[in-house]
Amino acid sequence: MSGAEIRSAVEELIAAYVSAIDDGRLEEWPGFFTDDCVYRIIPRENDAQGLPLAIMNCESRAALCDRVSAYRKANLFAPHAYRHMLGPVRITDGGGREVRARINYAVFRTAFDPVGYGASELFSVGEYRDRIVMVDGAARFREKLVIADTCRIQTLLATPI
Questions:
Q1: Domain residue spans in the chain?
Q2: Closest Cα to residue 99, out of 51, 53, 135, 65?
Q3: Is 157 within 8 Å of 151 (Cβ atoms)?
Q4: What per-residue confidence (pLDDT) applies to 139?
Q5: What residues of the chain score a pLDDT lower than 50?
Q6: Kind of pairing, strands 33-43 and 138-148?
């Protein structure tokens, strides 16, 4: 693939990923990953110190599917919606069979409960650090590290970032 084709595939993967989350189509979320993927939400402070503790840690597509199932059936939380705002995609390594990309993100959360109905707040800010591979002609995340600028989460972290 040419550099432009790689960039297009990476940008489309990231856009489809956030659209599925923002539109509440979480059952599609695991499909953006390889079977042997890693998905972690890590506080920036832990990442900077090389500490392994993650706020959320999934080490396979099956674990992501389990996360969606728990979200739909087991977790109790007030209705809400997310909206992602993304910075430009920076491809940091395009050689070989894997692409590394970094993207700044901000996620806003809008509450739909009776008390805070329609109130939007900044939920999380940070950076995606992605390792992306091509699987059957489609870009997929092999690893998605969500480096959150803070470990303080104002409410239940039920939805992927």
A1: 3-148
A2: 135
A3: no
A4: 95
A5: none
A6: parallel
Torsion angle, alpha carbons of 73, 75, 80, 85, to 10: -100
| Cα dihedral across residues 102, 92, 67, 55: positive or negative | negative
Q: Which of 86, 92, 78 is nearest to 161 (CA)?
A: 86
What's domain 3-148's architecture? Roll (3.10)
Contacts of 87 (CB under 8 A, 6+ apart): 103, 104, 105
Output phi, psi for 109, to 5 deg.
-120, 130
Cα four-point dihedral sign 41, 43, 48, 49: negative
Is the model's pTM score more than 0.85?
A: yes
Helices (H), the chain: 3-22, 44-48, 61-73
* Distance between CA atoms of residues 136 and 129, nearest Å: 23
